[in-house]
Description:
19 strands; 24% helix; elongated; alpha/beta
Amino acid sequence: MTDVLIIGGGPAGVSAALYTTRAGLKTTIIHKDSGALTKAERVDNFYGNPGITGVELIAQGLAQATDVGAEVVAGEVVKISVQPNGNDLHFNVETTEKTYSSKALLLATGANRQTPNISGLADLEGKGVSHCAVCDAFFYRNKDVAVLGHSQYALSEANELLPMVKSLHLLTNGQEPDVAFPPEVIIRKEKIQKILGENKLTGGSLKNEGEDLPLDGIFIALGTAGATALARKLGALTENNTVIVDENMRTNIPGLWAAGDCTPGMKQIAKAVYDGAVAGMDIVRGIRVVSQ
């Protein structure tokens, strides 16, 4: 039994762990990977770390959590359950390797940004393929770019890019758009045969027409919030693929918090760190009240 379990080793999860661990609570971080941040070739908009890569930032954060006494374990969460314990609830988190139990649980898995199985796409992540328009639109000023997706998430990315880019295509990869896009967006519904480029993205090959579409960048917008399914299974309220929380990052389930990209608001490192700090401090208060 641990005091606090945190699912997610990104900025939100680590930020919370720094507060809970320093307050004397036994804290365990479970992470499979660190999501979209590991795909960031350069992070220039986070205080005190100009030009750092996403991989470096994640590694520094996990090392910092370990240094203050948090336990960091790699594992894939396959099941979460909750059981009564007197007047409180305890959480059981089952991974592929082990089952963990805790008094408090924080969901901080980030947003689940999916990468489809298209030849060349994964190889060019960070080299013209991006998962965050807010983060990277600046680097594509007056260039020809595309959004890969067909839903609300893709529309949000398109709206971020439109004021910055020269032209914007929507690549639906054979799907029908399920929301209305601005008329400036050029919609291409053909299947994508291949993403072109070696050390840098140069375009995409569209299957039906055999056409090569020149592009400087592609923004992937297919994912849903990674924590949403876990939250729903526990009975937590969700909306638009995010977990609903109050001002202290508490869900409607006692003992369950959520923070970072899986909650509403900006998908930015600074916001995730703030969310984690708020959640961590509130978890400390909550456990101390229960223990009295």
